[in-house]
């Protein structure tokens, strides 16, 4: 699918497909009038996407097609894709087109025991688009996953959650103070969503980004591990080592990047974090 970008942004047409979400994309939806944006958010007829990427082996089980949405309410210090914070940085894509894009890959995804993952940004900033897209993909018989920070999960009904085969919940911290330090906001809603998934008995993966000097706090990880284990629905914990692939985006967007001098964790530090979650009885890697 080729979509014309906003005037003056890029001479060539921008493809909805990207080699990776680390491609920098800005201003691609700026031509959409605010009134149309409001309607889009209310109905889900139109979504704003950074891109689709194919062949991912790290965003859920099997090989995945991933749609990356724009807009996020958090401001994680370690965010790799700050260009996805702003809704109108994304390409405006009618829901119908997004469904067609997934349909192209449906048979292959099923054959590879993979599926479709909706990620971001924060996909539930566009909750109507997300819910409708996931329902349409589910009806194709394709495995569905959402990677979310959980903050707006209240916007999904139980029926809509049932259309999601796997929730990959990004948990940034356990205590409210640490969560605010990392993201700028509190995490009551995130914990509430995790408990709701447990009540609904929906499968969940938990993700935690390990950043030396910011999130490598033993007590935080122990509390998170104990909470995760208590839910009874966490199938897997993924410790994601911090990296600097997104650093250039912070600079190009003129943002203050606090983690300039931060190095990725060593293999030993990652192993220690993994061990904390395993000690709580969770499958972690
Ligand atoms: S929740 Fe994700 S997209 Fe949003 S700021 Fe944090 S890392 Fe970035």
Briefly say what this structure is:
With 285 residues, the chain is α/β, with parallel strands linked by helices. The protein has nine helices and ten strands. Iron/sulfur cluster is lined by residues 72, 74-76, 79, 81, 84, 120-122, 149.
Salient structural properties:
285 residues; 20% strand; eight-stranded mixed β-sheet; disordered N terminus; two-stranded antiparallel sheet; 9 helices; globular; binds iron/sulfur cluster
Give an overview in words.
It is a single chain. This protein is α/β, with parallel strands linked by helices and 285 residues long. The protein is 35% helix and 20% strand. The chain contains 9 helices and 10 strands. The protein has helices spanning 34-43, 95-111, 127-139, 158-162, 176-183, 188-200, 218-231, 247-252, 267-279; strands at residues 2-3, 14-15, 46-56, 64-69, 91-94, 115-119, 143-148, 166-170, 204-210, 234-241. The protein has an 8-stranded mixed beta sheet with strand order 5-3-4-6-7-8-9-10. Strand 7, helix 4 and strand 8 form a beta-alpha-beta unit. Helix 7 (218-231) packs across helix 9 (267-279). It is globular and about 45 Å long. It starts with a strand and ends in a 6-residue tail after the last helix. 42% of the residues are buried. Mean pLDDT is 95; it is low at 2-12. Iron/sulfur cluster (SF4) binds next to loops.
Bound molecules: iron/sulfur cluster
How many DSSP H or I helices? Answer: 9
Shape: globular
Overall pLDDT level: 95
* Residue share in β-strands: 15-25%
Head-to-tail CA distance between termini: 36 Å
Q: Tally of extended strands?
A: 10
Q: Uncertain runs with pLDDT below 50, 5 residues or more?
A: 2-12
SSE string: EEHEEEHEHEHEHHEHEHH
Radius of gyration over C-alpha positions, nearest whole angstrom: 18 Å
Spatial arrangement of strands, main beta sheet: 5-3-4-6-7-8-9-10
Secondary-structure content class: alpha/beta
- Amount of helix: 25-40%
